[in-house]
Write a structure and sequence with these properties.
Elements: H1 11-16, E1 28-32, H2 37-48, E2 52-57, E3 70-73, H3 79-93, E4 98-101, H4 112-139, E5 143-150, H5 161-183, E6 188-195, H6 203-213, H7 219-222, E7 226-228
Length: 233
């Protein structure tokens, strides 16, 4: 898997999937933002790989379009709703092996209203859900957490300051989770995938393949990685 301090790109993770080191089969994986284009493709790829996908979206009208073992319409920024879902999964599934955060949105500028709109989607949903699931992922023999960030974090501009600041905060939050697992020697990994835009040709497919491959590589090779999913410099 490519990224900071690593050679190659996201394709390396997909190539490693043939090794069968761990595998996604039977894993309970929560996918947030499952109703979007990227969410649907990631859910489909994980389902095809044999995972028990728990697809979560705030848009109830998109549930029927998602290939998953179960679907839920709820706001991942609602701590009570997230706690209820997690408790239910623990009781029914015995544990939770993954959380893929694909909740997002885009608004330019620096206005307060846009900040509040973005903050809930980009950061609050990540904070609330990862706090609830962190111990579950750490207890799994292959817990995995992943987010999608933006290449604009490395080259911020005033016209998108709200968005870039929140994406940077999300990356820092994931890095803190990764460091915690590293210190406590958990067999879990937190990964950030970076894209210029999900609209570029092949990027969503690369994301889906790379997410599936998270369960085919050991945690010590993945934890804390920031991986670029396109070829742009």
């Amino acid at each position: 898997m490519g990224g900071a301090g690593h050679d190659g790109g996201a394709a390396a993770a997909a190539e490693a999937a043939g090794d069968g080191m761990l595998g996604a089969v039977g894993r309970t994986i929560v996918v947030g933002g499952a109703g979007g284009t990227a969410g649907r493709e990631v859910c489909a790829a994980l389902t095809a790989a044999g995972a028990h996908v728990v697809a979560v979206t705030s848009r109830a009208d998109t549930l029927e379009e998602i290939a998953a073992a179960e679907t839920h319409a709820l706001d991942l920024g609602d701590a009570s709703a997230v706690a209820s879902l997690a408790t239910d999964l623990r009781e029914r599934r015995g544990g939770i092996d993954g959380f893929i955060h694909l909740v997002g949105g885009w608004r330019p500028g620096v206005a307060d209203d846009d900040w509040q709109w973005l903050e809930h989607r980009v950061l609050t949903t990540l904070r609330v859900t990862s706090r609830e699931l962190r111990d579950d992922l750490g207890a799994s023999d292959a817990g995995r957490l992943a987010i999608v960030s933006s290449a604009s974090v490395a080259a911020p501009r005033w016209g998108m300051a709200n968005y870039v600041a929140l994406k940077a905060a999300a990356e820092t939050w994931v890095a803190a989770i990764a460091n915690g697992w590293r210190v406590t020697k958990k067999p879990a990994a937190a990964v950030t995938f970076v894209v210029r835009t999900l609209d570029d040709d092949g990027v969503i497919d690369a994301l889906a393949q790379s997410v599936v491959a998270l369960w085919d590589l050991p945690a010590d090779e993945l934890n804390g990685v920031v991986a670029r999913l396109d070829d742009a410099e």
